[in-house]
Each structure stands twice: as structure tokens, then as C-alpha cells.
Amino acid sequence: MSNKQIPYKIYIEESEMPKAWYNLRADMINKPAPLLDPQTHKPMSAADLSGVFCDELIQQELDETKAYYEIPEEIRSFYKMYRPSPLVRAYCLEEKLGTPAKIYYKFEGNNTSGSHKLNSAIAQAYYAKKQGLVGVTTETGAGQWGTALSMACSYFGLDCKVYMVKCSYEQKPHRREVMRTYGASVTPSPSMETAVGRKILAEHPDTVGSLGCAISEAVEKATSMEGYRYVLGSVLNQVMLHQSVIGLETKIALDKYGITPDVIIGCAGGGSNLGGLIAPFMGEKIRGERDYRIIAVEPESCPSFTRGNYAYDYCDTGMVCPLAKMYTLGSSFMPAATHAGGLRYHGMNSTLSQLYADGLMEATTVKQTEVFAAAEEFARIEGILPAPESSHAIKVALDIAKECCKTGEEKTIVFGLTGTGYFDMMSYEKFHNGVMKDYRPEDAEIEKALSKLPKI
Ligand SMILES: *Cc1c(COP(=O)(O)O)cnc(C)c1O
Questions:
Q1: Cα 447 vs. chain centroid, distance in angstroms?
Q2: What does pTM read for this prediction?
């Protein structure tokens, strides 16, 4: 098909939207390793998890055989308010770069939460409501997940308690107020509301908080209150299942025009957007139907895939959550305070970890200053102001497209543009003022955190 017959935005019809999420684990030959109890190191059963998580979500978490999960009607209705998300052919970018490559991006920033996280938030809120719960608790670092969850909870009339890492709470008052607009209560963590928060405050009264601490508070709150459960916005396989809607829509749109990507790129924090984007393509790859080059992009400051170990580790610094086998830098690893908060996580989704271990995908790291340079280049040409997290994928997509200028290759590149960066202007400001730094953790720092991995 000639170039211009493909529209700038490849929309799919409402009637073509996916009716089921795809569970990639069903097609994997080597399945991801099971979650283990942090105390006994025995595989977690549904019963073990039921005090903390919602029942149907636990079932999704543990299921590695059922390939398709029907998306409940209520969730599909909500999806229709902001989906299908556009798959954009970046004609303007291609022209400016003078590249023979064909560039497409799947844009997930077209909703108030500003990121793909709403795709899973609405599913998790739905199952909590269906179970008859009063509400859910969670933590948020940069704030995207808390925002998405508060929107989802208000839609289903659930209470939503968000523990927000104290420094973000103070530095990002606007995100906090968006959450409160949707009816969530937002508590700076550590707080006096929980035993773990009080303990940490007694020991470190001036702490600015951490994600690990906020998780511990949210879990304690959920397990100590009747009718509450804890929910998480990344890392878990249930989240990746819900995010498969991104990849399924992308594939439906590409198939309509007979387009086959050569390279698929996504940023990787806990792995949910990347896992969702690649799911149906990776399924084809595993079944031997097609081959794709798949690239995870992580920050140089938090290189779980590229410099971590594939081992069992705690999912949180508080060591209350189950152990997962994943590429990890060690749960005590403290990533530098970089400007892509959503990518500052020590581990990686267990399914993606297995795929990486099996050589089915690649990973690469990028420096934050070059990420912001790519973000700016992209914004000036394609118009969208990207989130710093998303810009990691942009950077690698641009590099490959520029490489094609030299080689003349007409590669088809698809990348995930996970969100918008309106709440990250302080970071852009640092970049513009030339005061942004790059951080590469020392080998010794990583080795120290890895030496504390649980012995399994
Ligand atoms: C949270 C977030 C990410 C990273 O999370 P994953 O689970 O790795 O997808 C990426 N981009 C944006 C905009 C986010 O909010």
C-alpha cells in the first residue's frame, strides 16, 4: 500500500474495539515464576493473597493458562469515553528527519489522568466494586497512578485512599488537587495514620518519604479496615493483562492497513505499558508466526534489565508484598531522584523478565538529558508535550529513525507514547536552564543492593 493512503491517525471503530484482554502467559513456553510468600518462601495461593488484593484480580494474577479475558461491559463503556486511543503515523516527524523509516506511535495521554494507567485503574476499581468493597488504598509517587485510580473510583462510587510520597505531595500540589477533585483522600507518606508510618517518623522525623514506605502504609491501611483492599498500578501481571488493550488496539489498526512493524519500543518502569503494547505481537513471535524486534527502554539511573539480576526479590522496600522473580536492582536500591518518577522502580514485571531471560526482547538505557532533548524535539514537530517517562521510548525511536537515514532502510517503527508531561514542567525547566544532571549508579551501589536479595 502506498504511503499516503495511510491516514495520520489510524482510528478503529467502536465496534472494532477489543472485547477481551489478552493474557500473554497462556502462550509462553517458559512461564514466569510464581509469587512467593515473603516469610515462608512458598508459592502464594489465592487464599494467601485474599486479605490484601481483590478476589478476581488475584485470579487474573495467578492465571497462566487462559488466553483471553472478556472485558466486562461496564469497563468497555468506560473505555469508550477515551478509547480507542489514536495510533498516529508520524508523517511530520519522518519528513523533518528525512528518514525512510515509517514511524507510528500509540498515544495514551488523551485522558485526564494523562497516561495509560487509567486502563488498569478502571478494571481494578470495577472488580473491587463487584466484590462489594467500600474502597481501595494505594500509593503514588509521581502521581499518575493515584490520579487514574481516583478517576476510576469516583466512576464506580468507591472510596479511594492514596498515600503520596511526601516530597511529591509537596512538589506536585496540582496532581494532588486533581485527585481530590475526583474525591480521593491524599495523605503525605510517611503519615501518623499507620503504625509503619508512625515508626518511620519516630526514627526519621525529617524524611521526605519513599515509594516503599508509601506501599507499606497503603497495605497496612487496607488490611486493617473492613471492606478495603490494596491495589497497584504497575509490575503485577494483572496490570499487564489490562494494559494489553493498548497492544490489541494497535494491532487491529495496523492490520487494517496491512502494516507489519519491524521494531516495537516502549519505556519500562514496572513494565505494564510495554507489556501491554507488545502482548499480541509477542504472542505471534512465541507461536512462531512472525518476528519482531522488541526494545524496552529504561533510565540509566534505574537499569533493572540491563544491570540487574534475574532473581526473587521483594516488590517493596517494606518487604510486605509477595516475592517475585524478576530483573531487579535489589529492593534496597535507591534510584537517584530523576525526573521520570514512573520509571524509578527497582524491579520489573515477572512476565517481561522471563521473556528477556529467554532472549525474546532487548533492553537499553538512555540518559535523562538526552531523553529531554528528544522530548523537546518531538514536541516541536509532533505537537504533543510528552511525559518524561514516555520520552525514553521517543529517544530510542528517534535514534533508530535517524540510523535509517544513513542506511536507507525503510524500517517500520512503533512506539508507545504513554502520557503527557503537563505536570512535569519543573523538570523541563531544569532541562531548559541547563541544570539537569545524568546519573549512572556505580557498580558497587548495585552490588550492595543485590547482596541483600532474599536467599531462595
Ligand atoms: C507509570 C508510567 C510509566 C511506567 O510504568 P510502566 O508500568 O512501566 O508502564 C510510563 N509512562 C507514564 C506516563 C507513566 O505514568
A1: 25
A2: 0.97
